[in-house]
Amino acid sequence: MRSRSILSEPLQYLEGVGPKRAALLSRELGVEKIEDLLYLFPHRYEDRSTIVPIASIRDEGVNVQFMGKVKSAEVSSDRKRLTVIVEDESGSMELVFFKGLKYTLERLSPGSRFLFFGKPSSFQGRVNFVHPEIDAPPGPGQSIPTGVLTGVYPSTEALRNAGVTNKAMIKMVGAAIGVGLRDVVDPLPEYILKERGLVNIRTAIYNIHFPSDGNALFKATGRMKFQELFLLQLNLLKQKYIHSRNDKGFVMHSVGAPFHECYKSLPYDLTGAQKRVIKEIREDMQSGIQMNRLLQGDVGSGKTLVAVLSCLIAVGNGFQACIMAPTEVLARQHYANIRKYLAPTKVKAAILTGSSKSGERREIDEGLRSGEISIIVGTHALLEDKVVFRSLGLAVIDEQHRFGVEQRSRLWSKSPGGIPPHVLVMTATPIPRTLAMTLYGDLDVSVIDEMPPGRKPVRTIQIDESKRYALNKFIKSEIDSGRQIFVVYPLIFESEKSDLRNLEIGYENMVRAFPFPPYKVVAVHGQQPLEEKNFNMEAFAAGRAHILVSTTVIEVGVDVPNASVMVIENAERFGLSQLHQLRGRVGRGSDKSYCILVRGDKVGEEGKKRLDLLCSTEDGFVLSEEDMKMRGPGNMEGTQQSGLPVELNIASLTHDGPLLTDARNYAQKILDDDPQLKEEKNAPLLEELSRQKYHKEDFSKIS
Prior knowledge:
The protein is α/β, with parallel strands linked by helices and 703 residues long. It contains 24 helices and 22 strands. A hairpin with a 6-residue loop joins strand 2 and strand 3 (82-87).
């Protein structure tokens, strides 16, 4: 067994820390043990290998290092400012301090020599430094290994205010390395280090914190990035292997008559992508192993039809199927579409939501128990204990991230004989490949990457407030032609009153511009009573309202083929993926459709880039990759990087995609030879994966 006695010691016992500082580091950075400090890596480095002459320093926005002798130090009459003049052979420089005046004045006594490091600035035409870092000049007996590349550690305002500067962090990390590095055990076996040409763990940790040069840092970061991504994928793939061995699934031998009846009556051919995905699902359902498959498809790519045909395979083999949706609106929309597809068959479907009447519920409960109802569509109401199936064989879950883990796991008790139903998770949010491999690494992934023929492209344009009159004129012409309009406002957090007020003002402005009669404007947002929200949404879906003013509650699910215009207000405040989802609400009918992005007064460079990108392509997968590059995986669709299966300290899903693929392939190769990691050479890997941080919720069981 590896010893972790020193590594697991609370940080407060480390030299230079103490209880107060330890509590602050825990609260601000999540660093609690000595081991945590070893793995708190710098997020960038400063090159302090060069000492520049004072006369050459310019205000160019970059940090510089210089050495000088203190000529004078003077505190202002109001005791709020310390001005220090230092000089070298080339000239003199003014340094200004506003904090720690007494300490700094005592330290910088005239005649003393120091190293100074900081970013030069200009004041009244002269270059000076405000609060530069101060170090003793290089000399023998230096206790902290700083190297020529100095790491800059994560920090917060609270830490800086408490005196935990970057220099203090460097000292603490140096102390942690001094007492703890010898106890770090390499989780990668010797043969992997040799095969991959990697430095050992202790060398890597030391050189990430205190690199002697750029090459040492490159080797150290390369080693640690590979380790994080490799162990993450090894863990996911090992779980997947265990499930494939242990999780029996219902064997569905044939496609069955209902499938053929529906398929033959379709008025159009399936796309090649739809056919490929149905084949993958079909193979899973007849394998005897529980299917756990993620179905990704852009808005309008035909996922619902794939889901219906999958349900009909289950029905054709004597099983029932359920389709769970996150909202009542989406559930009812699915149900309406499914009934059309089921019309040529004798298959009975029903819908169950929180607002289903008690008499209706009794009838549904009886139909599910007896097996008379073959396909049930619903919301989380399907998870209630009183909902009992005769033979649930397939669960389709739409927009799975909207359902809680605990909720979804309840489905398993509803399946006969203790065998779990096959699971098909659908998402209309294109997920970048690297993120999908990490979030869903233990699921099989199918992608519908082809749009059905005849779907018209949505013309996307951006305008500013000066074009409001022209926009309203265009909306009127579209309504007069019999079409409907979405107007969406950003309500990023439901509690933000200012956002809600913007929507309310927007609604009032629309009512003024489009008075009743002849126009009908309705509003929908998350703070409305459910009954009012459903009533307004239904009025728009049924064509009784011309304009729906809304927050992003309509991002997923509302299908109104007659809606031809999507107006997005303050479009710069949305992420790319969200803008794309909203745009997907139009272009569903035969009419030409438009997405109009209304920019606010102040749009930053990143916001402008997002809007330009959206106008340039309709490919959701291209947009999702770009979105992740711009925002990072931490912000995409509410997925925090810390919420990934294992937290990444140094690797990045945004920048290390090729390495992630390489690490996954290597992990697969090792598991192909030793699926349970039982061989002696893989003992370090097995022990590492037993650590608590790898014990995540079982994604494949609950998706």
